[in-house]
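Reminder to self: tokens first, then the designed residues, so the page reads top to bottom the way the pipeline ran.
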């Protein structure tokens, strides 16, 4: 394939570091980058001019919706690569139906999420946040020293992974060197497949009962919304921790707040529903909640992996190799 015409469509303020200079230089060696300034809309004169020539479209966070008009506006389009995670709400079904291959960099975004989760699990096991709060409040070790005798720490604890997604599987791999017992709840896997991952298969209720730390990695589907409800939260051990780096909608948050207010369990929440809790939400104030603003995924320099993976995929396409991360329409509804 001769050097294809490449067009970018993403919001620069949200995608800084995704395509650093060295990645752009590499991209320019593979194809003809028509404009290094990304499109932020598809309905102006510049967009119409660039799309009319585009053979490869690279999208990213904050970019315009790739709707059903694109195959008409870009009649030569042969590939769409999303240099970010999920393509849900970003790329219309009409693109798939037009026979245009779609790929993404979700595998690259999974790396920092899994690393964040590993850190959260280790800190949760050692009750790091509780130790910090008491130490800072007291300015002495009168309360933290006795806590060290409690049945805490990360030796022979049980970690429950909910969902054998790409992130869930990465977390499992990262946990293997540690002395954890790993439970896995995923209705798409049988016991043999779970064992092959180094885990024990468990149904979700049993996982909630047994795990000292529960980490959510399921996709947002109608069947998974509020899967962690009041009944399942009540199954958790006293002192257990719930970690959510997946989607806020997986948890019935009213039920979670009620459980957290008792002080019986802890939570590490990188995602919520709504995405930003109301200003008066107790999530901001409860001492047993560690709340972060959706930072587990690629931020800062970690975003370079997204661009590198997108360029890798484009290089494979241009040289006639199979795409590694192509998304098919029939699988779209079951992925994150």
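Designed residues (336 positions):
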């Amino acid at each position: 394939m001769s050097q294809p015409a490449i067009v970018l469509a993403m919001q620069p303020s949200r995608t800084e570091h995704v395509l650093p200079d060295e990645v752009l230089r590499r991209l320019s060696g593979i194809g003809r980058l028509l404009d290094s300034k990304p499109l932020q809309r598809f309905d102006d004169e510049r967009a119409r001019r660039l799309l009319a020539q585009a053979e490869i479209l690279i999208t990213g966070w904050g970019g315009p919706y790739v709707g059903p008009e694109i195959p008409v506006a870009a009649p030569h389009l042969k590939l769409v690569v999303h240099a970010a995670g999920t393509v849900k709400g970003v790329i219309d079904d009409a693109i798939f139906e037009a026979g245009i291959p779609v790929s993404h960099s979700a595998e690259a975004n999974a790396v920092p999420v899994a690393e964040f989760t590993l850190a959260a699990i280790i800190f949760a096991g050692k009750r790091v946040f509780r130790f910090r709060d008491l130490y800072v409040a007291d300015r002495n070790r009168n309360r933290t020293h006795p806590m060290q005798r409690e049945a805490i720490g990360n030796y022979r604890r049980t970690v429950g992974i909910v969902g054998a997604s790409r992130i869930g599987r990465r977390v499992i791999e990262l946990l293997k060197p540690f002395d954890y017992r790993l439970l896995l709840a995923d209705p798409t896997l049988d016991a043999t497949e779970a064992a092959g991952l180094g885990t024990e298969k468990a149904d979700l209720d049993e996982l909630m009962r047994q795990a000292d730390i529960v980490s959510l990695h399921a996709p947002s589907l109608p069947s998974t919304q509020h899967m962690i409800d009041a009944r399942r939260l009540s199954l958790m051990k006293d002192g257990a921790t719930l970690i959510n780096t997946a989607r806020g909608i997986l948890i019935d948050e009213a039920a979670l707040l009620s459980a957290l207010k008792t002080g019986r369990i802890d939570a590490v929440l990188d995602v919520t529903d709504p995405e930003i809790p109301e200003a008066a939400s107790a999530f901001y104030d409860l001492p047993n909640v560690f709340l972060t603003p959706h930072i587990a995924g690629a931020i800062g320099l970690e975003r370079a992996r997204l661009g590198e993976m997108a360029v890798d995929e484009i290089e494979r396409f241009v040289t006639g190799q199979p795409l590694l991360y192509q998304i098919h329409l029939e699988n779209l509804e079951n992925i994150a």
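The chain has a mean pLDDT of 96.
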